[in-house]
Amino acid sequence: MSLLVLQSDFRAWLETGSAQASSAFAPEAQPGLLVYQNNYRASLMACLEESFPRTLAWIGGRAFRSVAATLIDARPPDSWSLDHYAAHFPVALAKALPDDPEVAELATLEQALTEAFVGPDAVALTADDLSHINWDTAVLRLVPTARMLTVTTNAAAIWSALASDQNPPAAAALTTPAQLLIWRAEYTSCFRALDRIEDELMGDMDNGIAFVDVCRRLISALGHAEGIMTAGNWLGRWTTDGLLINIA
Amino acid sequence: MHSFGLGLRKPHYTEFLGTEVPVDFVEVISENFMIDGGRPRDILRQVRERYPVALHGVSMSIGSAQGLDRGYLARLRALVGEIEPLFVSDHLSWSSTPGFNSHDLLPLPYTAEALSIVCANIGQAQDALSRNMLIENPSSYVSFAQSEMTEWEFLRAVSDRTGCDLLLDVNNIYVSAVNHGFDPVAYVAGLPLDRVRQVHLAGHSQGENLLIDTHDKPVPAPVWSLFAHVIERAGPVAVMIERDDNIPPLTDLLAELVMARALLPRKVAA
Known about the structure:
The complex is a heterodimer of chains A (248) and B (270).
Chain A: H1 3-16, H2 19-22, H3 30-51, H4 53-74, H5 82-85, H6 89-96, H7 101-117, H8 127-130, E1 139-142, E2 147-153, H9 155-163, E3 173-185, E4 188-194, H10 196-205, E5 209-210, H11 211-222, H12 224-240, E6 244-245
Antiparallel strand pairs in A: 1-5, 1-6, 2-3, 3-4
Chain B: E1 3-7, H1 13-18, E2 25-29, H2 39-50, E3 53-56, H3 70-83, E4 88-91, E5 94-97, E6 100-106, H4 112-129, E7 134-136, H5 151-162, E8 165-169, H6 170-180, H7 184-190, E9 196-201, E10 205-206, E11 211-212, H8 221-233, E12 238-241, H9 250-262, H10 266-269
Parallel strand pairs in B: 1-2, 1-12, 2-3, 3-4, 4-7, 7-8, 8-9, 9-12
Antiparallel strand pairs in B: 5-6, 10-11
């Protein structure tokens, strides 16, 4: 038996635990094979439980582990990083619990916060930096960990309550979908809701947007005085939030 | 001169960064820091300013017939470049087949084919990292009838062919010896001890039929005894307590290091 075939047979055993898969190995190997299969499933289960503590708290261990076991049965890990396996869990939750959409959205938010936590470093602009910028030519860009997430439920409020050991609200659908901005400020992952205009601007800031265009669009939407004031307020908030880099 | 260190684990970050912990080095799990950025990388940079750091991998999968993951190697190379580690190590085991990664240290049959594959993979890794690796003996729960040599003969051949050094996990020798019925002293006698650069000490648990390498308990008496046998015969090595679960207070692990020092042969204990 070549090494490739042996490893393929071993994989089949880990994935299925079936008598057919174990028959590729000697009878005396069976106790050891059980150890490896237990390790395989336990490490994936532990990975999911550690990656989604709020989701686990929200739906309880029994429901959580049932969906996790279904995912483990259906989808083996294929990356060297165990953390990458967690990215599949929100989709598995959406499929398993279609009548409870807040669960998958809560898990998606947790996953996004985790990804931001280990995302690329960047030096965010400070208020002091702003005084040296030519605003006629300045182009705004977001820190590389920033991403937007659409939610249709109050998953964000549930996350916040669970994270602060408060009683979470009952699950509820939002009257209209909301956009959440997720990013890392220094070493802390953050999120907040965006209003419609800020959401549109953030989308464009991924690739860089001229500050004069920000002003133009706000003036168009809100009128001259309020548009200019809003641009100034948002610039201040984006800076305080640690969202901006490389104004050039 | 022997040196003594600990595996760096999250509950002890504050003590390692805020106090002078009496260790000669720390070891971290490479994959935990093969990330783009954020606090973990920053903590590692701070730790590196205070202590030599060994990088210990669990996912290179040097026994994979499919070869190594180039993306993995590139990330490890970047980390090595930044940290300038004392050692870079991984296990004599495999984890991945095409489209699959078990995230476990799976056993190899000790055949000529496996030897050829392992040596090619180690050669590729050492070329990519521009440095020698340390290869660690695994604990295992299955052995293969098709094996053509013992694990220690296999390790010797790997070291001879690739020039790699060895990380000797004394607990793993003991666990595998009990599980497979070989003599741990014969294992040690068969190794090229002059290639051993690092030693791991850890605990294990009794499973239903087998000893399990759990790293969740203090180093037990039989492992201390085997360590005393090893250290009497090895050259200068970096000795480390490896605890991965049920992490105790740092003082408990430092007490185990005191025990390790006490077991040094008299001639080098001073």
